[in-house]
Amino acid sequence: MCGIAGLAGADAVRHQTTVAAMGLAQHHRGPDGTRHLVSVDGRAVLSMNTLLIVDTAADPGPYRDPASGVVLTFNGEIYNYGQVAAAWGIPLEPGETDAHLVLRAWAKLGPGCLAGLDGMFALAAYDPREGRLFLARDRLGEKPLYWRLDGGRLAFASEVTTLTGYGTAPLVVRPEMLSIETPTGADTPFQGIQLLPPAGLLAFDVATGSLVQRTWWSLEGLEPWQGDYETALARFSTLLADRVPMRAPGSDFALLLSGGLDSSVLAYLMRPQVCVTVRYPGQDRLDESATAAVVARDIGAELVVIEPTVQDFTRSLPEIMRALDYPMGNASTFSEHMAYRAVAERGIRVVVGGLGPDEFLMGYVRHALVLFGPGAVLGAGLDAYRPLASKLTGSTGEPLGPAEAIVKLILRGQDPDGRLRELVADALHRADGDLARGLTLADLATAWRPLVMTSDKLASAFALERRSPYLARDLVEFAYRLPVEHKIADPAAGKRILRDAAKALGLPREVWGSRDKLGFASPVPSWLSGPLEPWATAQISSALDQAPRGLHPLLAGGLKPGGRFDRTRMQALMAAAWFADHTLAAAA
């Protein structure tokens, strides 16, 4: 988990001090060294915050290829870099890492090298032979990368706040912040600053100031899997056994072990030294720690149990919002923050989590509601989800179409300009009639961004590298290709093929036989309507008095009474904390 920043333009060499300050602004992402490097033609200055994982004795970046003059700053891990180096005939000296492989591959192949890389990354490469700066991001956006164009220069960084420090960026409340709590696509809540999309490639010509963007990888176009279920299960199990352990570092690492299916499979395949779980006393509905204890005991790992309190939440909220840069709609944010803190306190640098199967293998109850209908889901024993299912019960009693059903299930506020509906309709169109694929693409266009971004940002605040093994390219592509019946055959038990793989691996029945998904959920919404109600109201009201008009609907919603699972107040509170922190930063 490193950090990158930089500037490209005709006079970039004159702005070394600016780039150095940008690097220092995100030094927590790489405590092993923050340096910057000027290209041989003086038209690019790149900075890198280095966190050494692969080789703790390696030189910190950025890196320059002497023969071509290509300069690289790199954030992430390339898990297959040894195989790629051998296949492409790229020599690596002792002590050199995946970043050196990317540097030489870029000098040799340019952006064409991206297709061969299996990993998570955000990078910037400047090639003086072409006079172009390239920005690139991994397939699923595990590593963030923001950019802005100003005065003929392009600036970029791993964190939005680094770029707001580079120049003014007025707040802009995007419509999706009212509907699903966070911007979508390339937008951010800061005018002029954009997020490079997952699998995005940007080329900036420093001489002309022109830029071109394209996508270098996509799920669309993959042929559906044609084999039977037994063959698919064998193939999936082989991919799991091969790709997941590849993502275990050579040193000690910690696993976020909720006790659910996804993290438990990782535990048995990766054998971490430490497992971390989160529980809330008195919240039995959210407690999977007993199953986590069974898993940890089976693999011989130490289990660290975190029990966050109401006081922990009030103390942590400013830290969480500072790390996130802006509000993101992720229900497990607080639990993740507390887990990462515990991992960092133990001196561990890598933490692993189970993102991915829910989106690609129909693991959410909302998927079952769209695929089977609310009657089938409630009839399968998931009565706790009746409030969610009720969203699909129209006044006429007629079933909703897939697009309208998906929107109703993910909408948490207003959708005044229909932006959310457009995103969902586009996802279903790109899925070519396969509803399960459409649900996956809809998730990637809406709910995925806050999940993957919070994982990176909260971990990096503690100088941790977050890894998500299920996002291996082959696993993702194979899961996407599977027919819906391979993913979910029972309305109460999604991720069918992963469950059967877990069963074959010998995991306990309480893991693969579980019919409910909890993850690292928290009771924060109920706290905000209970013991923290006066405090939350005061925080939101204070922000409402000073915030721009665009934020008023979001903040005002948090002053209304909410139910046990209503996240409206949490959404408003995070927005209030973000605005307060932004105001203080601007004043400083």
UniProtKB/TrEMBL annotation:
The keyword Amino-acid biosynthesis applies. Its EC number is 6.3.5.4. It comes from Streptomyces sp. Y1. This is asparagine synthase (glutamine-hydrolyzing). GO terms for biological process: asparagine biosynthetic process. The keyword Nucleotide-binding applies. Pathway: Amino-acid biosynthesis; L-asparagine biosynthesis; L-asparagine from L-aspartate (L-Gln route): step 1/1. Belongs to the asparagine synthetase family.
